[in-house]
Amino acid sequence: MKSSSSRFFTIGLVAAWYSSNIGVLLLNNYVAIAWMKIVPMQTIRSRVQFFKISALSLIFCVSVVFGNISLRYLPVSFNQAIGATTPFFTAIFAYIMTFKREAWLTYLTLVPVVTGVVIASGGEPSFHLFGFIVCIAATAARALKSVLQGILLSSEGEKLNSMNLLLYMAPMAVVFLLPATLIMEENVVGITLALARDDVKIIWYLLFNSALAYFVLGNAKGAVAVVVSILIFRNPVSVTGMMGYALTVFGVILYSEAKKRTK
């Protein structure tokens, strides 16, 4: 009887975990759209549009999975520094797929972003080649999703604002991520159960994490995450690595300003 009760408790805990993550995300979107009327509610108008959104969700999930894999081999600060190069890959994919050219000043600001990561890679005490490659792939996938989003949902009948798109992408992402989680993290149930027993506050952490997923801070969030992660996790960072991080952060700030001026 105890074994059965423990099993149901575990299943319930895991269900609550995923429900909290997705529930808070969807609730935030629904409140903002349906109640606060920040943006108008938009519906999926065709099967083709549904498949386009599903494709975007799949690419997003690939970036999440690859990003999590890289964290097994790289410190969070270095992971986030690499992630800050997303604008570089976005510019490349935009040019290849749509022949869209940015202003020369915008391209120029990408030089310190990439150079900073190269310098940080050479001075990173915990550098791991496989983790670096996977993290680059995750960053490229995020950029690809951004470009495809503009291409796939560009027609007047299929345009969705960011809040509505997130509202529909979130449940689709669950369908893709849940099997990946069960396959890649076989002991996820046991770990979750152990964490909950040791510290009940883990539930609040999950809810807070879900709420943060709703807010969009742009490219600057990666730069901020680099500094915060070093302060929290206190992973060893060399002087060369710090110089690389600083250059990348500086490049991201310049890129954001350049994009504002060219709009």
UniProtKB/TrEMBL annotation:
Subcellular location(s): the record lists: Membrane
Q: How does it sit in the membrane?
A: Multi-pass membrane protein
- Mind telling me which residue stretches traverse the membrane in this protein? 15-38, 50-71, 77-97, 104-121, 165-183, 203-232, 239-256
Gene Ontology terms: cellular component: membrane
* Transmembrane helix is among the record's keywords: yes
Domain (Sugar phosphate transporter): residue spans on this chain: 25-216
| SUPFAM superfamilies recorded | Multidrug resistance efflux transporter EmrE
Q: What is its main location?
A: membrane
Per its UniProt record, what Pfam families does this chain match? TPT (PF03151)
Task: Identify the InterPro entries for this entry.
Answer: EmrE-like, Sugar_P_trans_dom, TPT_transporter
Keyword Transcription regulation annotated: no
User: What does the UniProt keyword field contain?
Assistant: Membrane, Transmembrane, Transmembrane helix
The record's section on PANTHER family has: SOLUTE CARRIER FAMILY 35 (PTHR11132)
This chain's protein is named: Sugar phosphate transporter domain-containing protein
